[in-house]
């Protein structure tokens, strides 16, 4: 829409300029000075108009970017606060023995279903798990080294233990994965 306004404005200027050129053929030096003054004024106004159009377009783009960021990252505090809930449910499910599963099977199954639903909600809102494995390379962009220890049979910088999974919110780290890293040098 702004391009159409700009094109119409430039067409109007070209028409006016053609009319002035045609009428100037018969004019004297005073009228030509006045025309030059008007042209300078026109050029200044045209420059202001073009700058105003550019500013309006930049403001529109900035507002669209801000709106997208607010939609994607506005709930990051709530998401970060939900991570301990996920951690506790995961620990609860992992700590269940076969004997406990026999006695309280339906309750444990309910906890597992609730945890799966929480993961689905996370995925729906752009939250994904960072799940490093023992033997993976340490990546400071996604992992937080909780300790460093020499472990034979590993290379320096290999993950030797995973303490907690990490989480990403779209392309941003919500929480880095907490890992132990090998400092063994052969």
Automatic annotation (TrEMBL):
> What is one process in the GO biological process aspect for this record?
protein folding
Entry keyword set: Chaperone, Cytoplasm, Stress response
Could you list the residue ranges forming a coiled coil in this record? Answer: none
Q: Which family does it belong to?
A: Belongs to the GrpE family.
Q: Which InterPro entries match?
A: GrpE (IPR000740), GrpE_CC (IPR013805), GrpE_head (IPR009012)
Query: Gene3D superfamilies, alphabetically?
Result: 3.90.20.20, Head domain of nucleotide exchange factor GrpE (2.30.22.10)
Q: What is this protein called?
A: Protein GrpE
Q: What are the boundaries of the region Disordered?
A: 1-36
Q: Is Chaperone included in the keywords of this UniProt record?
A: yes
Q: Which domain of life is it from?
A: Bacteria
Designated gene of the protein: grpE
Q: Which GO terms describe its cellular component?
A: cytoplasm
Q: Where in the cell is it found?
A: Cytoplasm
Q: Quaternary structure per UniProt? A: Homodimer.
Q: What does this protein do?
A: Participates actively in the response to hyperosmotic and heat shock by preventing the aggregation of stress-denatured proteins, in association with DnaK and GrpE. It is the nucleotide exchange factor for DnaK and may function as a thermosensor. Unfolded proteins bind initially to DnaJ; upon interaction with the DnaJ-bound protein, DnaK hydrolyzes its bound ATP, resulting in the formation of a stable complex. GrpE releases ADP from DnaK; ATP binding to DnaK triggers the release of the substrate protein, thus completing the reaction cycle.
Organism whose genome encodes this protein? Roseovarius indicus
| Gene Ontology MF terms in the entry | adenyl-nucleotide exchange factor activity; protein homodimerization activity; protein-folding chaperone binding; unfolded protein binding
Bias kind Basic and acidic residues: ranges: 1-11
């Amino acid at each position: 829409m702004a391009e159409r306004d700009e094109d119409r404005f430039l067409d109007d200027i070209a028409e006016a300029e053609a009319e002035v050129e045609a009428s100037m053929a018969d004019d004297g030096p005073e009228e030509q000075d006045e025309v030059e003054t008007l042209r300078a004024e026109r050029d200044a106004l045209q420059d202001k108009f073009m700058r105003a159009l550019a500013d309006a377009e930049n403001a529109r783009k900035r507002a669209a970017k801000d709106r997208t960021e607010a939609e994607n990252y506005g709930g990051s505090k709530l998401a970060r606060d939900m991570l301990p809930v996920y951690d506790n449910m995961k620990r609860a499910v992992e700590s269940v023995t076969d004997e406990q599963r026999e006695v309280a099977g339906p309750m444990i199954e309910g906890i597992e279903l609730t945890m799966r639903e929480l993961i689905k909600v996370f995925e729906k809102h752009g939250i994904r798990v960072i799940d490093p494995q023992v033997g993976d390379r340490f990546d400071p962009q996604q992992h937080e080294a909780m300790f460093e220890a020499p472990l034979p049979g590993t290379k320096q910088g290999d993950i030797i233990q995973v303490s907690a999974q990490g989480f990403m919110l779209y392309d941003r780290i919500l929480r880095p994965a907490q890992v132990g890293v090998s400092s063994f040098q052969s």
